[in-house]
Amino acid sequence: MPIGSQSLHPLTEIEVANGPGGSGSQNSTIPANQTLAWESVFSFGSPGDDTVLDVEYSGNYIYIYGKNAGDFTIGPQSSNCTAKNNNSDGDSYNSLFVAKLDMNGNCIWISYVSANPTGTYGYFYGNYGKISIDYQGNVFIVGQWYGSGGGNTYFGSIPFNPSGTSKTFVAKLDVNGSFKWVNGISSSCYCGVDTDSNGNVWVSSYTSNPTRADIRKYDTNGTQLFSTSLSGSGATLIDEIKIDSKDNVYFAGGHHSSLSVIINGSSQTIPHSGFSYDMFIAKMNSTGYWQWFAKPVTSSSTSRAFHLGIHNDDKIYVSGFFYANLEIGNSSFSSGGSQNGFIAEVDSNGTWKWANELSCSCTVNIGNVITDNS
Q1: Is the peptide bond preceding residue 10 cis, with omega within 30 degrees of 0?
Q2: Of 155, 176, 222, 357, which is most buried, counting CB atoms within 10 Å of its CB?
Q3: CA atoms within 13 A on the CB side of 160
Q4: DSSP character for 339?
């Protein structure tokens, strides 16, 4: 799909959902004049419960983060790239895995969460999870884990058990795939994660009582350095975090009520349309001060921003979905009652540059935004 007359063409992954998971769904990827170099297929334990949650490319390696119902192996069965789920009912209680592949699709390592096999243990909760790689090749993941009343879940040798409830977590793996630490944070994973130039990791999550989006910054050892939140009378969700080369932090998500924030030292109100969630993009500097919020001119029903891509620190690309009518900058769209997608550019000062609609007589979910070098 052409993106106006822009010199930079984001690559978008568009999921067309015909059914609720498994073989009832179709995934259609629209590239930009790309030729398939290779493909890798690995089988899980159940087509209804296994999911690749996020994929990241860094340093000529591909990182895959997902949840699995059964044991599986990437590559030859003799390889060390096997993930396990030792719950007796894996179809109902998913584990999680992280895999590292080279650019030819060969598996370098795979790490997974294990458990005490004699006790009842927890499982990956929901379908939200994100992955980020720092400049040294360390891996950070966020997700939501439900802990049982007995037994322990182990991230490597590190026990983690929220004890009868679900909790968002952030965890670190080193360049060889060994878990180094795991921290429990908020209750729900409407979450994002990214790392800055100093190896610090920024994480977003959601707390329902009171309703707020939480933002935390940790050093590479897992020590919390900073925290803040966005809150209103309704829910605020941050679904993506991206950090530029100057360590400015960008957030994408949606809010269900007006927000009161301090922007450049001035108290301001971020208005709400009154129609479910309004999508937003926001910028924070490296010390945790808000710089601006960018919103649609019109959002007559639900709209959410899910994914961000940054090019040359001044072109910020955002994708998401909307219902009914959406006006971004000078561009207006109508979905006709379906869930349609959008992709747009905002500059580093918060000014919308252009927007395009991704539409069909179906449901459109945007998978990711990736920018090339042009």
Answers
A1: no
A2: 155
A3: 28
A4: B
